[in-house]
Please model this.
Amino acid sequence: MCEKSSDRNQDRTTSLLTIPNILCFIRLIGSPALLGIAWHQDQMLFLWTFLGLFLTDWFDGKLAILLNQKSVYGARLDSYADVSLYASVLLGIGWLKWEIIQQEVVWIALGVSSYFLTCTVGLIKYGRIPSYHTRAAKICWMLAGLAIVSLLMNWPIWLSRLVIIGIIYTNLETVTMTIVLPEWTNDLRTLAAAFRMKRKMDAENETEFHSE
Model:
């Protein structure tokens, strides 16, 4: 489905060099550095570098709202930066904590597969990855950061498993939202909001149909 004209206009009128977008670029470009750090088996440098990049994910959203610099482009860039960060972290932890990864491979596979499902459904329906930034996703990403710290610090493994369950729930919510919504939309907080938007779109389409 084609992008809405309002989305295209918003991308044209919003500068790419906003502070939130710069933070996203830092996360997008800086995340692969984690692989080099993991290769050299420097676990503490890996941890602190991850935390620094992770904080950019927290600050970019807050600053986008505070500075009124939200944009469709920024939402998509944020999603790509998140993929870069967590893909690099997953591979890096694989080098640093290979024995634990082998033990938890089923849990990790479930979490990763649920994310790829959201991407696949979005690409099939809209031609691009969903970027709803739901409330559940925000909580889940914070917990995911905690789980990564717990792995690196050798804390109990059950915490990571609980986070993966949350990730699966969040991704299934995203899949459902994509199925429900006829057009790509960013920044929807909940599945209930998606249903409300769907009803609104249906009502507008019905009104247009009867007016012709």
Remarks:
- The chain is about 80% helix and 0% strand.
- The two ends are 23 Å apart (CA to CA).
